[in-house]
Amino acid sequence: MSSLNDETLGHDTDLATSVTNASVDAIESLPTANNSTSRYNNCPPQQCFYNRDGNVCLEFITCGSAPEHFRALHSIRDMARDVKIVCQWHGCGRQVQRHNFMRHLREVHLGHGRTNDYQNGDLLSQGE
Asked: Residue 97 in 3-state DSSP?
């Protein structure tokens, strides 16, 4: 990932400060969707760099909490399966179909590929 500064983020705070000042309680209490599979339960929290109202979101999300986060905060909901969405993640701009959007976020932006699993926040190789 390229380095980001206040100007490119469109946010008043320094990215490093945002990360270090994040509340541990907020990270630990991230909701997960009831229908999320166990492969997403142990993903490490990361900041969301999706554009929200002209600024980067910066909320902490996991692969498990991402579907509800994007429904609630980024209006990715109530769309037909084949609607094309332009990803507003900082520096992305890729166009994906709505039914592939969450997979795109998890694989490209949250680092959880189709063959990756996490145990206690640590990445495991396929088959471990």
From this structure: strand
In the chain, which residues have pLDDT < 50? 1-28, 32-36, 118-121, 125-128
Q: Which residue has the tokens 């994007």?
A: 70
Rounded CA separation 41/58 (Å)? 20
Which pTM does this prediction carry?
Answer: 0.63
Alpha-carbon distance 44 to 35, whole Å?
19
| Contact (Cβ atoms closer than 8 angstroms) between residue 82 and residue 98 | yes
Q: Which two tokens stand for residue 118?
A: 């996490």
Phi and psi dihedrals of 103, rounded to 5?
-60, -40
